[in-house]
Amino acid sequence: MTDFLSGTRAFYDAVAEDYAAHFRDLLVVTPVDRALLAAFAELVGEGGQVADLGCGPGRITGYLASLGLPVFGLDLSAAMLAIARRENPRLRFVQGSMLEPPIADGALAGVVSWYSSIHTPADRLPGLFAGFRRVLAPGGHLLLAFQVGDEPLRLDRPFGHPVALDFERRQPDRVAGLLADAGLTVLSRTLRAPDAGAGESAPQAFLIARRSGP
Questions:
Q1: I need a labelling partner for 125 at 20 to 30 A (CA). Which of 8, 80, 147, 182 fits?
Q2: What would the pLDDT profile of 144-161 be if each residue is shown by its tens digit?
Q3: What is the pTM of this model?
Q4: What are the backbone dihedrals phi and psi of residue 183, each rounded to the nearest 5 degrees, phi first?
Protein backbone atom coordinates (compact mmCIF):
# COMPACT_ATOMS: atom_id res chain seq x y z
CA MET A 1 0.00 0.00 0.00
CA THR A 2 1.20 3.51 -0.82
CA ASP A 3 2.91 5.09 2.20
CA PHE A 4 0.41 7.92 2.64
CA LEU A 5 -2.47 5.45 2.57
CA SER A 6 -0.80 3.24 5.17
CA GLY A 7 -0.14 6.24 7.39
CA THR A 8 -3.70 7.49 7.03
CA ARG A 9 -5.16 4.10 7.86
CA ALA A 10 -2.92 3.69 10.92
CA PHE A 11 -3.85 7.17 12.16
CA TYR A 12 -7.59 6.59 11.94
CA ASP A 13 -7.41 3.07 13.32
CA ALA A 14 -5.73 4.57 16.40
CA VAL A 15 -8.12 7.48 16.98
CA ALA A 16 -11.39 5.97 15.71
CA GLU A 17 -13.44 5.81 18.93
CA ASP A 18 -12.34 9.24 20.18
CA TYR A 19 -12.81 10.80 16.73
CA ALA A 20 -16.33 9.38 16.37
CA ALA A 21 -17.36 10.63 19.81
CA HIS A 22 -15.85 14.09 19.22
CA PHE A 23 -17.60 14.69 15.89
CA ARG A 24 -20.85 12.76 16.49
CA ASP A 25 -23.07 15.83 16.86
CA LEU A 26 -21.22 18.23 14.57
CA LEU A 27 -24.08 18.56 12.08
CA VAL A 28 -26.31 19.83 14.87
CA VAL A 29 -24.25 23.03 15.09
CA THR A 30 -23.45 23.46 11.37
CA PRO A 31 -26.73 24.27 9.59
CA VAL A 32 -24.99 25.28 6.35
CA ASP A 33 -23.50 21.81 6.13
CA ARG A 34 -26.93 20.24 6.64
CA ALA A 35 -28.40 22.45 3.93
CA LEU A 36 -25.71 21.47 1.45
CA LEU A 37 -26.21 17.78 2.14
CA ALA A 38 -29.96 18.27 1.60
CA ALA A 39 -29.33 20.12 -1.67
CA PHE A 40 -27.04 17.32 -2.82
CA ALA A 41 -29.71 14.74 -1.97
CA GLU A 42 -32.28 16.67 -4.01
CA LEU A 43 -29.91 16.92 -6.98
CA VAL A 44 -29.26 13.19 -6.90
CA GLY A 45 -32.97 12.46 -6.73
CA GLU A 46 -34.68 9.15 -6.10
CA GLY A 47 -33.34 5.73 -6.83
CA GLY A 48 -29.70 6.46 -7.63
CA GLN A 49 -26.96 4.75 -5.64
CA VAL A 50 -24.62 7.06 -3.68
CA ALA A 51 -21.17 6.33 -2.25
CA ASP A 52 -19.70 8.13 0.76
CA LEU A 53 -16.00 7.71 -0.07
CA GLY A 54 -13.79 8.03 2.98
CA CYS A 55 -16.81 7.63 5.21
CA GLY A 56 -14.99 7.29 8.52
CA PRO A 57 -17.43 6.35 11.31
CA GLY A 58 -20.42 6.72 8.97
CA ARG A 59 -21.79 9.97 10.36
CA ILE A 60 -22.46 11.50 6.92
CA THR A 61 -23.48 8.16 5.44
CA GLY A 62 -26.19 7.83 8.04
CA TYR A 63 -27.36 11.41 7.53
CA LEU A 64 -27.65 10.91 3.77
CA ALA A 65 -29.65 7.76 4.40
CA SER A 66 -32.00 9.76 6.64
CA LEU A 67 -32.59 12.05 3.63
CA GLY A 68 -33.79 9.08 1.63
CA LEU A 69 -30.69 8.28 -0.41
CA PRO A 70 -29.61 4.67 -1.03
CA VAL A 71 -26.05 5.12 0.21
CA PHE A 72 -23.10 3.00 1.25
CA GLY A 73 -19.74 3.91 2.78
CA LEU A 74 -16.16 3.06 1.91
CA ASP A 75 -13.10 3.67 4.09
CA LEU A 76 -9.52 2.53 4.60
CA SER A 77 -9.78 2.13 8.36
CA ALA A 78 -11.16 -1.12 9.78
CA ALA A 79 -11.67 0.57 13.16
CA MET A 80 -13.70 3.38 11.61
CA LEU A 81 -15.79 0.89 9.65
CA ALA A 82 -16.51 -1.10 12.81
CA ILE A 83 -18.02 2.04 14.35
CA ALA A 84 -19.93 2.86 11.15
CA ARG A 85 -21.50 -0.61 11.11
CA ARG A 86 -22.30 -0.42 14.81
CA GLU A 87 -23.96 3.00 14.49
CA ASN A 88 -25.71 2.25 11.17
CA PRO A 89 -26.52 -1.47 11.20
CA ARG A 90 -28.86 -1.26 8.20
CA LEU A 91 -26.29 0.34 5.90
CA ARG A 92 -23.46 -1.26 3.93
CA PHE A 93 -19.85 -0.35 4.59
CA VAL A 94 -16.84 -1.73 2.73
CA GLN A 95 -13.10 -1.41 3.23
CA GLY A 96 -11.01 0.03 0.43
CA SER A 97 -9.23 3.05 -1.01
CA MET A 98 -11.15 5.82 -2.74
CA LEU A 99 -8.17 6.13 -5.10
CA GLU A 100 -9.13 2.72 -6.49
CA PRO A 101 -12.75 2.21 -5.40
CA PRO A 102 -14.16 -1.25 -6.14
CA ILE A 103 -17.08 0.29 -8.01
CA ALA A 104 -18.10 -0.29 -11.63
CA ASP A 105 -17.84 2.47 -14.20
CA GLY A 106 -20.90 4.72 -14.21
CA ALA A 107 -22.56 2.86 -11.35
CA LEU A 108 -23.34 5.82 -9.10
CA ALA A 109 -25.77 8.72 -9.13
CA GLY A 110 -23.75 10.49 -6.45
CA VAL A 111 -20.36 10.59 -4.75
CA VAL A 112 -19.63 12.35 -1.46
CA SER A 113 -16.08 13.11 -0.37
CA TRP A 114 -16.66 14.82 2.97
CA TYR A 115 -13.21 15.97 4.13
CA SER A 116 -11.79 12.69 2.85
CA SER A 117 -9.56 14.09 0.08
CA ILE A 118 -7.55 16.08 2.61
CA HIS A 119 -4.89 13.39 3.07
CA THR A 120 -4.33 12.90 -0.66
CA PRO A 121 -1.10 14.51 -1.92
CA ALA A 122 -1.62 17.30 -4.45
CA ASP A 123 -0.04 15.30 -7.26
CA ARG A 124 -2.57 12.50 -6.75
CA LEU A 125 -5.66 14.73 -6.90
CA PRO A 126 -6.07 14.54 -10.71
CA GLY A 127 -6.24 10.75 -10.47
CA LEU A 128 -8.60 10.89 -7.51
CA PHE A 129 -11.02 13.21 -9.31
CA ALA A 130 -10.81 11.18 -12.51
CA GLY A 131 -11.81 8.18 -10.41
CA PHE A 132 -14.81 10.06 -9.04
CA ARG A 133 -15.90 10.80 -12.61
CA ARG A 134 -15.37 7.18 -13.64
CA VAL A 135 -17.78 5.78 -11.08
CA LEU A 136 -20.45 8.46 -11.68
CA ALA A 137 -23.14 7.92 -14.27
CA PRO A 138 -23.56 10.71 -16.84
CA GLY A 139 -25.24 13.59 -15.02
CA GLY A 140 -24.23 12.18 -11.62
CA HIS A 141 -23.25 14.57 -8.85
CA LEU A 142 -20.25 15.00 -6.55
CA LEU A 143 -20.17 16.81 -3.20
CA LEU A 144 -16.65 17.65 -2.06
CA ALA A 145 -15.85 19.26 1.31
CA PHE A 146 -12.45 20.48 2.51
CA GLN A 147 -10.73 23.15 4.58
CA VAL A 148 -9.42 26.29 2.91
CA GLY A 149 -5.80 27.39 3.14
CA ASP A 150 -2.31 27.14 1.71
CA GLU A 151 -0.51 25.20 4.43
CA PRO A 152 -1.40 21.84 5.96
CA LEU A 153 -2.48 21.42 9.55
CA ARG A 154 -0.45 18.74 11.33
CA LEU A 155 -2.11 16.89 14.16
CA ASP A 156 0.35 15.24 16.52
CA ARG A 157 -0.81 12.88 19.28
CA PRO A 158 -4.56 13.67 18.91
CA PHE A 159 -6.61 12.51 21.89
CA GLY A 160 -3.29 11.37 23.41
CA HIS A 161 -2.63 8.66 20.81
CA PRO A 162 0.99 8.27 19.55
CA VAL A 163 0.19 9.10 15.90
CA ALA A 164 0.46 12.15 13.64
CA LEU A 165 -0.98 13.14 10.26
CA ASP A 166 -1.11 16.14 7.92
CA PHE A 167 -4.51 17.60 6.99
CA GLU A 168 -4.18 19.41 3.66
CA ARG A 169 -5.92 22.74 3.18
CA ARG A 170 -6.58 23.89 -0.38
CA GLN A 171 -7.88 26.86 -2.37
CA PRO A 172 -11.37 26.40 -3.89
CA ASP A 173 -10.39 27.86 -7.28
CA ARG A 174 -7.54 25.37 -7.59
CA VAL A 175 -9.75 22.44 -6.65
CA ALA A 176 -12.52 23.59 -9.01
CA GLY A 177 -9.98 23.73 -11.84
CA LEU A 178 -8.83 20.19 -11.15
CA LEU A 179 -12.44 18.98 -11.12
CA ALA A 180 -13.04 20.65 -14.49
CA ASP A 181 -9.91 19.01 -15.88
CA ALA A 182 -11.32 15.65 -14.77
CA GLY A 183 -14.60 16.25 -16.59
CA LEU A 184 -16.64 17.41 -13.61
CA THR A 185 -18.54 20.67 -14.05
CA VAL A 186 -18.74 22.71 -10.84
CA LEU A 187 -22.32 23.84 -10.21
CA SER A 188 -21.87 25.60 -6.89
CA ARG A 189 -19.17 26.82 -4.54
CA THR A 190 -19.93 27.51 -0.89
CA LEU A 191 -17.41 29.04 1.49
CA ARG A 192 -18.27 29.53 5.12
CA ALA A 193 -16.36 31.00 8.03
CA PRO A 194 -14.84 28.68 10.63
CA ASP A 195 -17.26 27.79 13.40
CA ALA A 196 -15.54 28.22 16.76
CA GLY A 197 -18.23 26.12 18.42
CA ALA A 198 -17.29 23.24 16.15
CA GLY A 199 -13.59 23.71 16.90
CA GLU A 200 -12.75 24.91 13.38
CA SER A 201 -9.74 27.14 12.69
CA ALA A 202 -10.04 27.63 8.91
CA PRO A 203 -12.77 28.47 6.40
CA GLN A 204 -14.68 25.50 5.01
CA ALA A 205 -15.32 24.92 1.29
CA PHE A 206 -18.03 22.84 -0.37
CA LEU A 207 -18.13 22.20 -4.11
CA ILE A 208 -20.99 20.47 -5.92
CA ALA A 209 -20.10 19.20 -9.39
CA ARG A 210 -21.78 17.15 -12.12
CA ARG A 211 -20.24 14.60 -14.45
CA SER A 212 -19.90 16.17 -17.87
CA GLY A 213 -20.42 14.38 -21.17
CA PRO A 214 -21.33 10.75 -21.84
A1: 80
A2: 999 999 999 898 998 999
A3: 0.95
A4: 90, 30
